Protein 1
Amino acid sequence: MPAVRTEPQDRSPEHPAPEAFTLQQILDAVVDPVRRSIVCQLSAAPSPKSCGSFDLPVGRSTLTHHFRVLREAGLIRQYYAGTSRMNELRREDMEEAFPGLLDALVTAAARR
Amino acid sequence: MPAVRTEPQDRSPEHPAPEAFTLQQILDAVVDPVRRSIVCQLSAAPSPKSCGSFDLPVGRSTLTHHFRVLREAGLIRQYYAGTSRMNELRREDMEEAFPGLLDALVTAAARR
DNA sequence: GTTGAAGTATGATCGGCGTCGAAGTATCGG
DNA sequence: CCGATACTTCGACGCCGATCATACTTCAAC
């Protein structure tokens, strides 16, 4: 049976432009406690973090789902480094799309 | 058969103190498009508005539900004036609990 | 190559939330 | 007292999203 190898699939995920951000997507993203925790941990981190470096009470596949929601909303940028997928906040793009929102959210999350 | 009139029930709803606001409740409240529209209309209004003065694509009982969610989150204050229930934003209390958040949300909602 | 580590894809489940309609309550105007 | 108006309450229903387990892919190290 011949090898049915498909072409190596594109591993670079799609990121929306700031003009395409919608408030609905942003809020849908941050309303979930797990995703909000990801945003806060990223905001506090000095450098990008891999998906596995977050300690969160969910399984890996669920985590993949959360990161996709955050990326498609425009909150984070993802890129591969080896087998690891790195994540960082898109602060400037968020600031451009919805000024003050990300700051207010992270600050609010830090209280209580 | 004697009148079975019960005592007139308390029509003044409960409002949480700013210290009791939670970000989760606020986000749960504003993530819904109908409720976010209410907040925006209230923010743009010069004076309190009655529940019925919002034009929204939902039934009356659904509207009641939305106003309760907003009130219990701390976003609005409600009081009766005759048969009408008036609503106003709790701007100062929101600012105290989560500085900048309400402004950022309303501004963001106004864009697009 | 093989093996292991890191994520991704898929399908199923399950609970919560937004919605409605119908019936109930409160207040105001005759 | 009699509507009429303005909301509320109560069930029921339907859908969407968070979660998981399993199987798969990709890359790195040896």
Protein 2
Amino acid sequence: MRVIKESKERKNEILDIVEHLFNEKGYAKTTVDDILKESGIAKGTLYYHFKSKEDILSAMIERQIERRKQSIRQIAEDKTISAAEKLFQVITLLSKSGTLADGLHEKENSELHQKSFTRSLMRFAPIMTDIIEQGIKSGEFSTPYPRESVELLFCASQLHDPGVFVWTKEERRRKVEAFFWILELTLGMSDDAKAELYRLAGISKEVSENNG
Amino acid sequence: MRVIKESKERKNEILDIVEHLFNEKGYAKTTVDDILKESGIAKGTLYYHFKSKEDILSAMIERQIERRKQSIRQIAEDKTISAAEKLFQVITLLSKSGTLADGLHEKENSELHQKSFTRSLMRFAPIMTDIIEQGIKSGEFSTPYPRESVELLFCASQLHDPGVFVWTKEERRRKVEAFFWILELTLGMSDDAKAELYRLAGISKEVSENNG
DNA sequence: CCTTATAGACCGACGGTCGGTCTAATAAAT
DNA sequence: ATTTATTAGACCGACCGTCGGTCTATAAGG
């Protein structure tokens, strides 16, 4: 019965399970006993590793963010592609599965959503700002407020999160269009950069369509 | 002890009290018993008028939104001022006391915040879009996406909500600057409109300074 | 004028859920 | 031998929500 694992390993195991549970039933509706049942550990064990249910949530979000941060950083440091393409890749990455946790169409997940949103912005914005500044140096972009533009775009992405707002197909199409339009405008994209963005967006149109 | 009132009246009385309590302690940390104690009614009475704690939250938010909607509509229908000034007045109105409820510097108010945010956007955006379209007709603004621009600006206002993000004074200054810059850009403001906006923003600079 | 009835507002003890604590025993690792 | 990880689950207390019953007002019937 008794299996001993390193704290790190056990923690990750628990986080795997709550990630699954929270995304399925939502944070509030997942009880601690659910987590226990699913992971087959005792209550004492859970509270040995985490100090509260919310602590588990924070840890899960932090882990998710850290993973994405690595992916984003990798894109940002890629020397073989333009800033415009980097930006596009990051947007694609983030729009996959909402900005945050997977498929929480549920309301009531405000805690998860809110926490994930603010933490993501704080952690991703600096890297994305780097990308914009690379683009400014290379002449692709031109804006007096790179950081603030990134933050704005980040906020705007909430509009496309089906867990927050529900739109019709047509509304969604318009909103995606508008998003790209605002992107060009606020970043002051050069004609070349625009062309590249549209080329990329054209190729993988699924991005905007999967997102509902 | 027993005082009998009409349902409407009692409901409003309760909503007055929860408005106060939720803004002071937050939704999650306010217990139903707190509401009872503060309003001097019994539990059964509360649940006679509302079906759940969350129902109370919804009702409170709905009432707040309805009030603001009246104010915004009034501004939108004012025939004596320009669209630029209308927009400015609406922004001022909304930024007063955050986008939503007053002074919830607390985290953990995600429920209140989230609900209020989405409901506000859905209810206010149409009226604000009207204002933009008036501005387009009068030549003050020019944009292919009036509705989407409004939504974007609305989302962006979260960045200035001290209950969501905490910035230094300098950061906040920059963000307000950036906000106005993006406003001009996305709405395609004419030089006249820009000038008017800056005149108005200059006069009541307190707006951006009170907001922290 | 005096009962009787009906409805709607009101009451508060109680039930059930859920997060979190505590204890006491135990096994593996160092 | 001490520390670290684990187990099992009884127990606690805070909370939300329910339920049976009560009070008041107004109206109808005698």
